Amino acid sequence: MEDKKIAMEETIRSIFDFIGDDRHREGLLDTPKRVVKSWDKLYSGYTQDPREILGTVFEDGACDEMVVLKNIEFYSMCEHHMLPFFGKVSIGYIPDQKVVGISKLARLVEVFARRLQIQEKMTGQIADTLMEVLQPKGAMVVAEATHMCMVMRGVEKQQSVMVTSAVRGLFKRDARTREEFMGHIRH
């Protein structure tokens, strides 16, 4: 692994050359090491199994009413431009027999956000993993994010926010269930 890190540091130095900066100037000397180290966190989702995050479930005391965790902050990196996008995710599900600790829902968002990603796929992955592991009656995930590829390059629209949703099970079949969830996350 150390050889890969050294090779990546040299790649970062090559980027400095490509953009026309001086790889030997004081401010850039340790930048390659810092960038590679930051990737340990930024891309840590590749080293985690999202199903394991939801592995501890509780069956006693499981309810059959909607469970909602909203405004889960996240940061991710766009797979198209390797620029950040960030925002909030709200998750709702209706348990059948299993519930999970709420911190696990936030960790589930984190594991998918910490990968090269597109928001549409991330939103669906969160919902699909909930359905697979918890086997609820339904799940719904809404993500809202600002994409730096839209803000600092391209069309440069600073106020743009992308909204995606993934709707599964009862949420897909029943408009009232969707409306209840949307009511919870709007407040």
Give an overview in words.
One of its GO terms (cellular component) is cytoplasm. Zn(2+) binds at residues 78, 81, 149. It catalyses: GTP + H2O = 7,8-dihydroneopterin 3'-triphosphate + formate + H(+). InterPro entries: GTP-CH-I_C/QueF, GTP-CH-I_N, GTP_CycHdrlase_I, GTP_CycHdrlase_I_CS, GTP_CycHdrlase_I_dom. By secondary structure, the protein is an alpha+beta fold. The chain has 2 domains: 2-42, GTP Cyclohydrolase I, Chain A, domain 1 (Orthogonal Bundle), CATH 1.10.286; 56-186, GTP cyclohydrolase I, C-terminal domain/NADPH-dependent 7-cyano-7-deazaguanine reductase, N-terminal domain (GTP Cyclohydrolase I, domain 2). The protein has helices at residues 2-19, 31-42, 50-53, 102-113, 119-134, 148-151, 170-173, 175-186; strands spanning 57-58, 67-78, 84-94, 99-100, 116-117, 138-147, 162-169. A 5-stranded mixed sheet has the order 5-2-3-6-7, with helices on both faces. A two-stranded antiparallel sheet has the order 1-4. A hairpin with a 5-residue loop joins strand 2 (67-78) and strand 3 (84-94). It is elongated, with a radius of gyration of 20 Å. The N and C termini lie far apart (47 Å).
